[in-house]
Structure formats: structure tokens, C-alpha cells
Amino acid sequence: MYVDEGTHLTAIVRGRRYYFCSETCLETFTAPEKELARLKRLTALSLGVGIPLFVVALGMGLGWFWSNLMEPMNVVFFVLATPVQFVAGWRFYRGFWDAIRSRSANMDVLIAIGTSAAWGYSAIVTFLPYVGVRGVDPATYYDTAAVIIGLILLGKYFEEIAKGKASDAIRKLMDLAPRTAHVLRDGREEEVAVELVQLEDLVIIRPGERVPVDGTIVEGFSAIDESMITGESIPVDKKIADTAIGATVNKTGFLKIRATRVGADTTLSQIIKLVEEAQIARAPIQKLADRVSSVFVPAVVAIATFTFFAWYIRLGQSVAHSLLFFIAVLIIACPCALGIATPAAIMVGTGKGAENGLLIKGGEYLEKAHKLTTVVFDKTGTLTKGKPSVTDVVAFGSTSEADVLRLAASAEKGSEHPLGEAIVRAAAARGFPTEDPVDFEAIPGRGIRARIGGRPLLLGNRKLMADAGVSIAGAESVLQRLEAEGKTAMILAVDAATVGVVAVADTLKDHSVEAVRALKAMGIEVIMMTGDNRRTAEAIARQAGVDRVIAEVLPDQKEEKIKELQGAGKVVSMVGDGINDAPALAQSDVGIALGSGTDVAMEAGGIVLIKDDLRDVVASIQLSRRTVQKIRQNLFWAFFYNAALIPLAAGVLAGIGIVLNPIIAGAAMGFSSVSVVMNSMTLRRFTPKF
Predict the structure, then answer these.
(1) I need a labelling partner for 41 at 20 to 30 A (CA). Which of 124, 200, 396, 573 fits?
(2) Is 444 helix (H, G, I), strand (E, B) or coil?
């Protein structure tokens, strides 16, 4: 239920303040294991007393045994049932009082009134003969109150077990963190608690050990298993200047890292924080359930009261008989299942998302994602790798493609230009030997000039060749084709003759095409938005299968473009990774940030994808759709159950012999809550489909 921040019931857990509707909820949240054990004991007490009382009361009522001892036996029943009512059932009285103080209504109100009515009536009947009042029906309902309390507590016990399983994601994440770290201080290695590692500390990680904090590698080379953070099963090779993420496993080599993030700032801690926030966050659909409950509970009390007086005054039944219908209405209408229908599904859904590398910051985003009609991808670094790669090598005359790439890489050796670095990487990847350039000269806006093996070499654009008087007539058709594909084409000339062309472009990430295809198959419009020129943008869009392109957009215009799409009635998700994407991520209905991107982008996004895999955009939407489906199922059955059985509990069908006993009502109500949680737990079987 909704809890106003003005409540006096608060607790600070791991540095964050939480607000509660009752002390029972507070204790369950802050000490779940202790609360679960206490719940187990109270359930055993209630059912251990209530079931024997029910059997004995039934036998006496049917004349099987001791029917002539009903009055003295009621005293025994009173002694046994009273601890159940006020010890095991005390949580409901506390909840009732907390609800009254906060001027709200919850399930505890119905349970407290219903069981108190049964116990209170029975207590009066028990002691009337001892104060001289005779002729009152000696039938009591201690067993009804005790068994109802026991069944509701049993339902809560099973519910807490199920919710505990749903929270396994957080516990598993927390268990990944190492407890100690080997730190170099004053030239000596010390083993300290991981909480004592400070920024800039030098940390030693040996093969097989977990990385204790986030840091930058300053010495060593190794392969690190990052599967628990990124989901990638293949260990990643790491060298000096690379980042090591806390809780990942160092597989092969000795590493020394400089701590850059410690404590609550580490990647793992941030993941845990996001998952926790998501699991306690409130989705709009949950607020609707709370509003329904706030009206539903007072309405049920009114209906139960009306039922009592209708049977007692209008139909002339006894107080005891009328009271049974009163209690049955209160118990059957208890909105326990209604109250947990949404949070149970949200908790399991966000936990399952975390297992799959999808960090959903709140139930709001998990709910909104199922409504998406449009997904807008940033180009550079999102759909594409964000750094240029050699895509084509074309040779002319007797020169081979291998020689073209080798000569171009030799000329660019040591270059700091991104295009030059791409050529050098491509030659190294293919094992081509390179030479050191002589008389190297970079010509801004045109290319480079150098000597390789004593021969003059030019590598650059048309302007460079024109200035040097080199004819490119034979290469023109190739240049036009490559440029039409959005690639940067560089001409290689040796001894003033064109010998080849090397094309460089920002290439699509793995699975980009697959992700776009899957989104379109789900009926979602896919748009690419970029600051690049239209020709390059459209070339990338064609490769990715994107039908609509918004090109030549300045960083501060991206947010406006998202607003325009929303103004056209679209529900929009922005997918990005850069600082310039942050305003658009925040403006969109569901911002999806790549975990490989900037901190600013991840802060602005409602969903963070830990893996650098765009198929997880599809997985996020699929998980959202499945979770909302479960929420709707839960709400329907919880509300349908409450509404449909109230008339039966009120005795509408009593004329044909169909009466809902309060004990059966309590059992059904208790297990309806468990069924809602178990239905939500089926989300744990969720598997993305691409």
C-alpha cells in the first residue's frame, strides 16, 4: 500500500531511508530471516491450537462427545484460544492501529475486526452463565478465530518463502563481492577488509582470485571472467590501462590495479542498488491497486455490517448465526492478494532482469516498456562500434591487396589519427609486417606523405592526389561506390601512381541487425538518430535494416526530436551510450543506456544494459510484456476472487444450503495470496527470444 513519507515508521538500511505502513512490515523488511522464524512459530501455535479446537467443537456440536459439557469446555477453549488471538494475532492489531493512525485501510483492518468479533462474541457467551445469564446458545467460535489466524499466517509464511526466492538475485550479487583485498602499502602487501580499500590504493590480484574493487590495470596481463557482470561467457584479455571490474575473476595472470571505485561506488554495488530500488519502486499500476484497496476495505466493512444486521434484524436470525456471515464477509474480502499482485511480479521481473544483465531502475520503467511503439537508436557507439575499422582494400595493377594494406599501415605507423590507427590495427590483425616511415608528414584535411623502403608514398583524399598531380581516373568508380556506402575512402599512391584504395568506416556492432529485425517483428518502429551526414547515416541504416533516419542532429537537438515523436502520439524509447544522449534518454518514456557507455548516460537511463549487446533492448521489452501480463493476471484473479465470493460469504445462497464457513473463507483467502506470488514466480522461467 502507499506510505506517506510523514509516517513515524522508518528505517535506514544500507544508507537509504525506507517508510512503512506498520511495524510488522518494517520488521519483515529489516530482518527477514528473524521474521520468517517468528512467523513459523506463530503459525504452529495458531494451527496447533485452532485445529484441535475445531475438531472438538465440531464433535460437541454434532453430539459425538461432551455435548453436555459445552459450558465448562468453553472456558477451556477461552484459555487456549486467547493466546492465539492476542499473541499470534497481535500483528493484525498493530497493523489495524497503524492503519488508523495513518488514516488508511489495509488487510489487517479486516482480519482484526473479523477475528475479534468471533473471539469477543465467544468470550461473552462463555462467561454469561457465570454471571447468572441463562438460555443463551452456548456455541462459540474460538476455533474459527484461531484457525483463521493460523491459515492467514500460514499463507504469509509461504508468501515470505516465495518472496525470499524472488530476492535471490540481490543475495547472489552480494555474495559475489570478495571479503578481503591484498593492498600494497609502504612497499608491503597487506590483506585488509575490502571496505578498507581506498581510492588510488594499489591492489594485487593473483590467478583465481576475484577483483575486490573497480580499478585500472597498472601492471600485468591476464584474462578476466566478467560473466557475472556482463553475461559474456568468454574471458576478456586485459592489459595495462584496461579496466578491471570488482567481483570479476582473474583467470590466468598476475595483476596489479589502481583502485578507481571503492565501496558503494563500485560497479557491483551500483548494480545491487539499482536492483533494490527497482524491487521497492512503485509502478503506476500498483498505485491503482492501492487506490482500489483504500476504497475497497471501508466498503467491505460496511457490507459486512449490513450483512450482520440484515440476518439479525430483517431475517430474524440469532446473533451467533448473523455473526458468522459478518466474519465470513470480512475474511473473504481481505485484499491481501490484491495488495501483493503488482509488487510480487515487479520483484521477480526485476530480479530476472538482473540475472540477464538488464538493470531496471524501477517498476515504472518495467511497466512502461511494454507500451513502447518506437525505439530510437543513437548511431555511433550504440548501433555501431564507435571506432573506425577497415572495411575494404582494393588493389590496382600488379599490386596485391596485401601490399596495399601493408604499405598503408607502414605509412600510418605511429599515427594518432583514428583512421590511421584503424589501418594499422587491420594490418596487425592479418599478420602483415610493417616498416617505419621516413620523412613522415601529415597534411591537414588531405592525408599523409612518407617514404617506405625509399619509395615516395601518398595516402589521402582526392585533394591530396590533385595537389601532387596524381591521376585517380582508374579509381574513381571504386571511390564513388565506397563513398555511397558511407565509407571514408583513402587513395594510396606509390611513385606518383595510384596502386589501391583503403576504405574505413564505423561498422555495426555484432547482433545490431538481429536486434533491429526482432524489434520490427514485435511491431515496434525503429529509428536511427545521429549527428552524421545523411549519406553516411543512411548507409549504416541500410546495413542495420533501419527504415527511418534522423540525421545531422546536433547534440542539443536530440531531446527536441524525442519530444516531436512523443507529440505525434508515440511511446518512445531512446537507446544511447554517450553524454550527448543523456537529455534524450531522460526525455524518452523509457531511456535505455548501454553499460559500456558514460556514467551520465547510465544515470539518465531507466534501464541499463550491462552487456554491450543490442539484443538486450529486445529482451527488456519482452520481459516488460511478460511482467505486465503477470500483473494483470494477478490483479484480475485477486479482485475477481474478492468480488465474486463476497455475496456467497454474505449468505445470498444460504436458501439453497450453500454457506461459506469463515474457516474455509480464511483458508481460501490465505492461499489466494500464495497463488499470486507463485504465479509471479513463473517469471523466473523467462528466456528472451530473438
Answers:
(1) 124
(2) coil
211: cell is 577483483
Q: Is 410 helix (H, G, I), strand (E, B) or coil?
A: helix
The pTM for the full model equals 0.62
428-431: Cβ within 8 A, 24+ apart: 430/402, 430/405
Q: Which amino acid is at 43?
A: T
User: What positions carry a catalytic annotation?
Assistant: 378
Residue pair 45/85 in contact (Cβ under 8 Å)? The answer is: no
Spatial strand order of the sheet with 255-261 comes to 188-193, 180-185, 202-205, 255-261, 214-220, 243-244
The C-alpha cell that represents 101 in the structure block: 493512525
Q: What is the CA radius of gyration of the chain?
A: 35
Give kind and range of the element (H or E) at residue 102: none
Alpha-carbon distance 579 to 269, whole Å? 22
Cell of 583: 537529455
| Residue 198 neighbours by CB under 8 Å, 6+ apart | 259, 262
DSSP string computed for 84-101: IIIIITHHHHHHHHHHHH
How confident is residue 232, by pLDDT bands cut at 50, 70 and 90?
very low
Pairing, β 16-19 against β 180-185: unpaired
Distance (Å, whole) CA 76 – CA 212:
62
Q: What is the helix (H) or strand (E) element at residue 304, kind and residue range?
A: helix 284-309
> Residue-wise over 643-656: b if at least 16 C-beta within 10 A, else e?
eebbebbbbeebee
Instruction: For the beta carbon of residue 668, count every other beta carbon within 10 angstroms.
Output: 18
Number of other residues whose CB lies within 10 A of the CB of residue 261: 18
How far is the C-alpha of 637 from the C-alpha of 344, rounded, in Å?
14
Per-residue pLDDT of 580-635, as tens digits, reads: 677 788 888 898 988 765 454 556 678 888 888 899 999 999 999 998 899 888 87
Residue whose C-alpha is closest to residue 489's, from 545, 451, 497, 477 = 477
Contact by Cβ (8 Å): 301, 636: no
The Cα 385–Cα 557 span in angstroms is 23
Q: What angle do CA 324, 330, 334 make, to 5 degrees?
A: 145
CA–CA separation, 176 vs 238, rounded Å? 20
Which residue is listed with cell 454471571? 131
Residue 241: CB atoms within 10 A of its CB come to: 8
**Could you tell me the CA-to-CA distances from 347 to 12, 168, 576, 680, 689 in Å, in that order?**
20, 10, 26, 9, 21
Selection from 55, 24, 47 nearest residue 666 by Cα: 47
